[in-house]
Design a protein that fits this description.
There is one protein chain. 29% of the residues lie in helices and 28% in strands. The chain is α+β, with helices and mostly antiparallel strands.
Length: 362
């Protein structure tokens, strides 16, 4: 299948694969149809599940490619017929990396991060090691849950070592999957005596995890645009999340979030994105504004999402520039990233539930 050189292949992982999980699909639909609106000035080849046939027929610039198979399977057989692509996917099951690698292997130009950048940022410990020391991060260590239970003693030893460095302050730990999204399977260990083999109910033998010191504070994120070399912060976003006991969830946010640490958060997020080659397009950086004002650091970096994230759907309503269109023009060299008008026109709140994503201007 050959297309005109100026067309753009567009898709979103869940809506293309026909996966209709309640806690995911409303967000996925908002993301892909928001991106389609942003790309109204371009010819678009949209890959989407057949169930969306009626919804996409009103887009005059869109050539719908209706499929009934997983998007990765479809790409393996068809990616070579396209010149350019912009897509939405997350890190789960390495989908973000796998899709990017297929496109790169077929010489498709992407308006998203490179496969190597996706690999580094999908793995929380790879990100931790890749960033320079002047970017504050919680102390971190990675483990594998081995079938004989040696992991438990290893984590206890790590806690003992870290606690000895500040014996007067009780040390909490937070345990996360090495690759994960939306606060899934996150456990907080308030007291090391609570660490038990019950953890294997969440992380079965063979699981790879990252163990970090727990820092109390406000969860925020910074949304940025990057051309692969330079990154420009757009907004500081409050995150509404619940973590712990393995059933944590991300359920919305507020943009923009007012904080005296906004400039510091922008600087840390920008430096982190620019420190990893190949991060392009829309990027989200998760941060923590530290509640302990006696600590050396006011803001800690938690992770980098080298992809479209949920704040995109809210930012579209208050941004003074077209995000999707600008990404394409910046990466094509038709626009200078420094020319972005990053001022925001108002506030927006978005809330996720089991079967909807409500977006409301304030």
């Amino acid at each position: 299948m050959m297309n005109e050189n100026d067309s753009i292949l567009v898709f979103e992982y869940f809506t293309a694969s026909g996966i209709k999980e309640k806690n995911l699909i409303s967000e996925a639909e908002e993301l892909i149809f928001g991106l389609l609106d942003d790309l109204s000035d371009f010819k678009v080849d949209l890959v989407i599940d057949k169930s969306y046939e009626d919804r996409v027929k009103d887009f005059d610039n869109v050539n719908p490619i209706l499929i009934d198979e997983p998007i990765i399977d479809w790409l393996e057989g068809n990616a070579s017929g396209f010149e350019n692509a912009i897509f939405i996917a997350a890190e789960s099951d390495n989908a973000l990396y796998d899709i990017t690698k297929i496109l790169e292997d077929n010489d498709v130009k992407t308006y998203t991060s490179s496969a190597e950048a996706c690999f580094k940022t999908s793995n929380k410990y790879e990100t931790y090691e890749a960033l320079p020391l002047d970017i504050p991060q919680p102390r971190s260590f990675r483990f594998k849950i081995d079938p004989k239970g040696y992991w438990k003693r290893a984590i206890e030893n790590l806690h003992e070592k870290w606690q000895s460095e500040d014996p007067l302050t009780p040390l909490k730990l937070i345990i996360k999957p090495l690759i994960g999204i939306d606060c899934e399977n996150i456990v907080i260990i308030n007291d090391i005596d609570e660490l038990s083999y019950d953890l294997e109910k969440i992380f079965p033998p063979g699981s790879r995890i990252i163990v970090q010191e727990f820092i109390r504070g406000t969860d925020v994120s910074v949304s940025l645009i990057s051309d692969g070399k330079k990154a420009i912060p757009i907004s500081l976003n409050e995150q509404f999340i619940n973590i712990g006991n393995g059933n944590g969830a991300y359920f919305g946010g507020h943009i923009p979030y007012e904080s005296k640490y906004c400039d510091e958060a922008f600087e840390i997020a920008t430096n982190a994105v620019e420190a990893i080659d190949g991060i392009r397009g829309f990027v989200g950086v998760d941060l923590l504004i530290n509640a302990d004002e006696k600590d050396v650091y006011s803001v800690y970096l938690l992770e980098i999402n080298s992809r479209f994230t949920t704040p995109y759907v809210g930012l579209r309503k208050i941004c003074n520039f077209n995000i999707g269109k600008s990404i394409v023009e910046i990466i094509d060299g038709k626009m200078d990233i420094d020319d972005l008008d990053t001022s925001l026109n108002g506030e927006v709140k978005f809330m996720k539930s089991a079967d909807s994503l409500e977006i409301r201007r304030l």
